[in-house]
Every structure is written in structure tokens, then in C-alpha cells.
Amino acid sequence: MTPATILLVLVTLERLGELWLADRNTAALLAAGGREVAPGHYPLIVALHAAWLGGLWLFARDQPLQLGWLAVFLALQALRAWVLLTLGRRWTTRIIILPGAPLVRRGPYRFLSHPNYLVVIGEIAVLPLCLGWPGYALAFSLANALVLAIRIRAENAALRSEAG
Fold it and tell me: Taking the model in full, what pTM does it have?
């Protein structure tokens, strides 16, 4: 197994674990009275991430690793863990509003409104760069920017409406 394949296996397992965690947290938030907002764009997010990772498996699994970019990717994983630990049971891949719950203002949320999206932007760009595919990184970064523009606009509107 090549180093690139090992990296892709680890990222795939991470993503599958995150989907399990997100589903569990979503169910708990909905059971506690939460409501999902703007679910229409969610299939776009799923399709984008599936195409991004699937394409890397198809085209880049045998590429040599670029160690500098790998270090950046590992730093992004530390930031991802910080976001997940900070949000705890409130972290999900969907936009769930829990009425009456205060916004999280600790951890990376002290510095940024949407640190998770910063991590996602970085990952979409940096993992292909780890595998020597800059054009792929650019193409998916542009597609991700379009999807995140929809997502962040919807999330901000939901948060503003909840704040009253």
C-alpha cells in the first residue's frame, strides 16, 4: 500500500466516522426540539465531498506525498478536532437550530464565526496538494466556494432569525 493510499484510507475512515457522529448528533438535537434549516443544499454538499474524495481515490492514490502539504493537512486535522471537541453534541453536518441554546463562543469560535468551514476550505484544497494535484485542488475549491456561499448564507440567516 502506497503512502498516498494510506492517507486516503485514513481520510475516508475519518469522514465515515464524522458522518456517523453527525447523524447521531442530528438525531439527538432533533429529539431535543431542534429544527433543521435549509436542507435543500445538503445533497450538494454530500455530492461535492463524495466526488472530491472519490476522484482522489481514482486519480491520485499512487502519487508521491508532498510532505510540506501533508504537514499543513495534519495541522488542519488538529483544527478540525478542536472544532468538534468545542461543539461536542452540537456538531453536525446539517444546519440544526436548537431554540433557546446560546451560540458557542469558546474554543475557535472566540476568533471566527465559522471555523469548521475554514477547515473544510483548507482540506478541499490541501489534500489534493498533498498528492500533487494542484488543478484538482483549484477545481474543487471553486466548487466548494459556491456551495459554502449557499450554506453560510443559510446558516447566518437561521442564526439571525433565532437571535430575534
Answer: 0.93
Count of CB atoms situated within 10 Å of the CB of 1? 8
Task: Provide the 3-class DSSP secondary structure of residue 97.
Answer: strand
pLDDT digits (tens, 9 = 90+) for 11-21: 999 999 999 99
| Contact in structure between 79 and 119 (CB atoms under 8 Å) | yes
**pLDDT tens digits for range 92-136:** 999 999 998 999 999 999 999 999 999 999 999 999 999 999 999
Residue 132 falls in which region: left (phi positive, over 0), alpha (psi -120 to 50) or beta: left
> Quick one: the chain helix, strand, coil %, rounded to 5?
75, 0, 20
Q: Are 56 and 155 in contact (CB under 8 A)?
A: no
